[in-house]
Amino acid sequence: MAPSPVRIGLVFGGASGEHAVSIRSANTVIAALEQGQNRERFSVSAFYIDCQGRWWAEEVARAVLASGQPAAPEDLPQPLPSPGFLNLPAGADAVEVWYPVLHGPNGEDGTVQGLFTLMGKPFVGAGVLGSSVAMDKLAMKAAFAAAGLAQVPYVGLNAADLQEPERRDAVVARIEQELGYPCFVKPANLGSSVGITKARDRSQLLSGLDEAASLDPRIVVEQGVDARELECAVLGKRQLKASVVGEIRFDADWYDYTTKYSDGLSTTLIPAPIPESLQDQVRTMALASCRALCVEGMARVDFFYDDRTGDLWINEINTLPGFTSLSMYPMLWNASGIGLEQLVAQLVESARE
Ligand SMILES: Nc1ncnc2c1ncn2[C@@H]1O[C@H](COP(=O)(O)OP(=O)(O)O)[C@@H](O)[C@H]1O
Ligand SMILES: [Mg+2]
Total domain count for the chain? Predict the structure, then answer.
C-alpha cells in the first residue's frame, strides 16, 4: 500500500510590502506540489495571511490564489476579526510540514518560523536564527565579517545617530573618509531595493540617510562598486548543495525596485558567462555564508564581481527568495538538473530531515 500523502500547510500573502509577489510565488509552488508524482506524495492545505496579518483557511486562500490578487477587505468573510494573528485557522492542526511562501518582514525574518517551532512542526527553509540574521543587513554583515567572507567596505549606524548635529557630522565624516562616493544607503530590514539610494555627493548622502532613517532605525552605508551581479541557489539541510551560478544584467544604473519588477528591464543569464574557477569560488562562498548564518533548507546568495580586478564580494543571503516560474531560484535549480516538481519535493524532504 502506498504511504498516505504528507499534509503540507502552504502559507502565503503576509503583512509585508511583498504581499503581491508572494501570491505569485505561492501559485508556482502549489502547482508544483500538485503536479505529477507529487499528487500522490503531498496533500496541500493553503493558508492566506491578508494585508492586515489575519490568517484565513483553505476556502479564502484558494480564492485569492485563483484571482492572483490580494483580497480586498470587503471580499473577506464578515464580520472581520481584528487585525493581526489571533489563532490558527481550521485545518492547521492536521498540517505535518509547513511551507512558508512569504517575503519580507513577518515571513522571512524568523517570526513565522518561531511560530512553527513553538508548534513543534517541521517547516521549509531556514530556522529562526538564520532567518532573522539574514533579514537584518547589519547583523548579516557582522556574521559575514566574523566568518572572514569578503564584502564591500561599509559603515553601520542607528537612525538616532542622525538626530544630533554633532553625531551626524561625525557619521558623515566617517562615511566620506572610509567609503567615499558613490555609496549606497540602505535601511537594514526592507528588501526589494525599497528605501535604498545611491549617493554621489554629500547632499545626496544626507537626503539618503534621512530617507533610510524614516523607514528603519538601523542603517547600512556601503562603498559603491562597479560590479557584475551573480547569484547562486542553495538547497538541503544535513547536506547543503549549491546550484550553477547565474547573472543578472539590467539597463539601469543599479538594480532598483522598478528595474526588479518591470518586465523587460533585466535579463538573466544562466549559467553566468564566467570562468569555471569563479563558478566554483561562488558556490564555495555561498555554502560558507549559509553555514556562517545558520541558514539551511533554502537560500539564494547574491554577489558582486569586478571582472577587471577579479574581486568577488558577498552581498546578501535571501532566505525566502522569489519563487515565480521566472524567478532566479527555481531557474538556477532547473539549469542544475532539478525541475520545479522535484525541487519542491526536495524542499519538503529537507524540512523533514
Ligand atoms: N555596494 C554597492 N555597490 C554597487 N551597487 C550596489 C551596492 N549595494 C547595492 N547595490 C545595488 O542595489 C541593489 C539592491 O541592493 P541589495 O543590498 O541587494 O538590497 P535588497 O535586499 O533590497 O535586494 C543591488 O542589486 C545592486 O544593484
Ligand atoms: Mg538584493
Answer: 3
Q: Is residue 130 part of a domain?
A: no
Pocket test for ligand 1, best of 196, 197, 249 (most atoms within 8 A of CB): 196
> Which residues does a 6 A CB cutoff place in the pocket of ligand 1?
152, 184, 186, 191-193, 196, 222-225, 229, 254-255, 302, 315-316
Task: Name the grid cell of 49.
Answer: 495571511
SS3 (DSSP) at 222: strand
Q: Looking at the structure, do residues 56 and 70 belong to the same domain, yes or no?
A: yes
**Same domain, residue pair 29 and 110:** yes
Residues 260 and 139 in one domain: yes
What digits encode the pLDDT tens for the residues 228-264?
999 999 999 989 999 999 999 998 888 888 888 777 8
pLDDT at 302 over 80: yes
**DSSP per-residue letters across 249-306:** EESSSS--HHHHHSTTSEEEESS-SS-HHHHHHHHHHHHHHHHHHT--EEEEEEEEEE
Atom of ligand 1 nearest to the CA of 194: 22
pLDDT digits (tens, 9 = 90+) for 1-42: 667 899 999 999 998 888 988 999 999 999 999 999 999 999
Residues 28 and 47 both lie in one domain: yes
pLDDT of residue 16: 83
- On whether residue 235 sits in a domain, the answer given is yes
pLDDT mean over 213-227 = 95
- Ligand 1, from 108, 248, 254, 318: best to mutate by most atoms within 8 Å of Cβ? 254
For residue 186, what are the domain limits? Answer: 154-223
